[in-house]
Amino acid sequence: MVPLDYTNTTSDATLELQLVKISATKQPKKGSILFNPGGPGQGGRDFVAGLYGPSLLVATGGVYDLIGFDTRGTSTTLPFSCYTSPERRAVATRSFSRFLNASDTAVGETWAAAQALGESCYENARDIGELIGTGYVARDIMQIVDALGEDGLLRYWGFSYGTVLGATVAAMFPDRMDKLVLDGCLNLHNYYAGNDLEEATDSDAVFDGFFKACVAHPEVCDLAQDAGTAEELRAKFYDLLFALKYEPVVAGTGEFAQVFDYVTLKTAVQYAMYAPPTWPMLATGLHGLMTGNETATATLVPLLNIEQQTIFPANGPEAVYGIRASDASLRTTNLTSLFPLLEQFYAKSRLMGDIVSVPALAYARWPFQAKGTYTGNFQAKTKNPLLFIGNDFDIVTPLVSSRNASAGFEGSVVLQHGGYGHTSTAQPSLCTVRTIRDYFVNGTLPAPDTRCEPSLELFSNTTTFEEVLADIASQLD
Predict the structure, then answer these.
(1) Phi and psi at residue 107, to the nearest 5°
(2) Are the beta carbons of 421 and 274 closer than 8 angstroms?
């Protein structure tokens, strides 16, 4: 049990945190490691108790208990829900799923949908809207550390948004940090400002890498048949995307028929850029669209219906806004005042600019401001140094963000992971896993400017992080 409202000293209301543990497989045990998979809003219990658990045991040396917990606003831990029924949620989600360059009216429609979202959340979640921000979750983490009864120090591995959470904990409690891995870092200052322009820094380079890898592996990439160079493929893609904006196509028949338009295609590409193992699927689908082959086009459908298998109750998709928008300081009721910011997003990335800019419209109209938000400068000397990991080519958490975050934590090191996708798990590396294991087990940091190459080849037959980790486990000495 933890305090429900840390800043309300007159209240004794409490909150029960939901945790799960996977026990260490080796002795002597060195303690516990807490995990956050990102989102915000992804379930920490599912992450540890599900498919990732065995891989995480390998990567951390088997000498730690692994702790997954659902943060405030997620699963059954003070769940943040803005709708009274799945049907109402489905209707609202459709109205808030436009990308801002999808049409001449998309910005205005999304702006109005953001207002509707905020009003619905205020109506249905106003009792908890201020209580689920990252500052309170950081305090919850240290309450968990105390309850574990070990050495009073935090060991933690956070991915994506989990790096913001980890860095916030480290900045708030620097003298209680043991070993923290922050994998795929966001720009910490921009996150809290609500204008993370840095997020899309490498997005176009990731997409270019997809086309280059396709051309280099024509035997397994159907799309390579449609042009001779990566540049020609990229040009054909954007021609196709523009055409679909005005003349969508349909693949499949009956109830399985799927409309492919600007938003649908961009959604499929976005998801695929997170996970290189899906690149062959994306290439086949794009080849189908370019050639009018409905069977091949239908290969894209799984990229539009990615549903994580959960063990514990899942939360609604608005939880990401419940946490992230409440953390952000951006607020305005004047849409035109946001136009310069939106133009900066568009200029940052042709692929992702009109996608990663959508949340800013929600932040601007959000009715809650999180209590207990960290307002410092992320400059700290922690008891023990932190390990940051940044990919060469990450679709939303570029290497520069890890470097910028590391600059504020004295003694920390950035491990450069030479892979594509989102975080080091997207295109895994034996070298990276060994580095993480050595850090957790021995406290050993890599030398500055260390770079690890991925063990999973692009357009290979290996499809999952778990498959790669199984192979890596047999190679770890």
Answers:
(1) -65, -50
(2) yes
Copy the structure tokens of residue 42: 């992804």
Coil, strand or helix at 389: strand
Peptide bond into 367 cis (omega under 30): no
Structure tokens at 315: 């939360």
Q: What distances in angstroms separate CA 463 from CA 333, 386, 425, 460, one per listed residue?
A: 45, 30, 12, 8
Q: How far apart are CA 305 and CA 192, in angstroms?
A: 30
**207-250 residue pLDDT tens:** 999 999 999 999 999 999 999 899 999 999 999 999 999 999 99
C-alpha to C-alpha distance for 256 and 335, rounded to whole angstroms: 38
Q: Which residues pair with 74 in a beta bridge?
A: 77
* Residue 408, token pair as written in the block: 């504020």
**What's the DSSP call for residue 224?**
G
Residue 61 backbone zone (phi > 0: left; psi -120 to 50: alpha; other: beta): left
The single residue listed with the structure tokens 């509707």 is: 116
Cβ proximity of 278 and 462 under 8 Å: no
Helix 106-125 crosses helix 86-95 at what angle (to 10 degrees)? 150
| CA distance linking residue 405 with residue 191, whole number of Å | 12
Decide: 163 and 397 in contact? Cβ < 8 Å: yes
Cβ(433)–Cβ(59) under 8 Å?
Answer: yes
User: Residue 144 has which token pair?
Assistant: 């968990």
Dump the DSSP string for 418-450.
Answer: EEESSSTTSS--HHHHHHHHHHHHH-PPPPTT-
Neighbours of 311 (CB within 10 A): 12
Burial of residue 192 (number of CB atoms within 10 Å: 0-12, 13-18, 19+):
buried
d(CA 108, CA 88): 21
pTM of the model: 0.95
Looking up tokens 């504020």 gives 408
| CA distances, 30 to each of 62, 268, 401 (Å) | 9, 42, 31
Side-chain-facing half-sphere of 25: CA atoms under 13 Å: 10
For the chain, the straight-line distance linking the first and the last C-alpha, in angstroms and rounded, comes to: 40
Is residue 217 packed enough to be buried (19+ CB in 10 Å), middle (13-18) or exposed (0-12)?
Answer: middle
> pLDDT, tens digit, for every residue of 294-345?
889 989 988 887 555 555 555 678 889 999 999 999 999 999 999 999 999 9
What's the CA angle centered on 203, arms 200 and 209, to 5 degrees?
A: 165
